[in-house]
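Worked Example 4.2. Consider the chain below.
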Amino acid sequence: MARRAAGFTLLEVLLAMAITAIVTVMAYAGLSAALNSADSLRTEGQRISEINRAWGLLSRDLSHFVDRPVRNEFGAVVPALVGGERVEKTLAFTRVGWFNTLGRRRSHMQRVRYVLEDTTLYREQFQVLDRTNESEPQRVALLEDVNEMEFRFLAQGIELPANDELITDNWPEAWGLDGGQGINTLPEAVEVRLVLEDWGEVRWLYEMPQAAF
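Applying the procedure from the previous section yields the following structure tokens:
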């Protein structure tokens, strides 16, 4: 008697195809989730790097602060540090330690300014301390998606508390010019407050070096 050839029935083939399809969908979903997670981590890491870069530059500049007033393009004397409401919420000050690798005839001091414009935080630096009408700053974008930038200043004679309970709400929000401080008066500390689109509020506190040039 002839033996029936071995094989799969149509039902078995359809069942195998269905199982394969389910496994494929599950594998793709897992791979897609892994890729999305990797992209999210990469984006988050890049954002953290940008924030750290902005914080690092501002920290370096303020740590090299020097008490050297300048003259603006109108010939008026501007304090060594000005910031807050009366200067359009910018922070401008003089710093020392401007490297001169090319050996040019220029000062080792530099005037820098941090300004928020169209949700982008910029760092500006001037090539001369005492400016003229033709003095234009060099601008570098530091951080995007910044919704707000505010400053608070601690007057001299007030010590920073040793504990973590630091309240800065009563600190002046402006310094220099018509902020009530003299031309030679420097703050004891500066708080920088940023409101980021993705991270919310970020605060940095800097104790100012009382250095003379």
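Residues 61-207 form a domain with the Pili subunits fold (CATH 3.10.610.10). The first helix runs from residue 10 to 63. Compare this with Example 4.1 before moving on.
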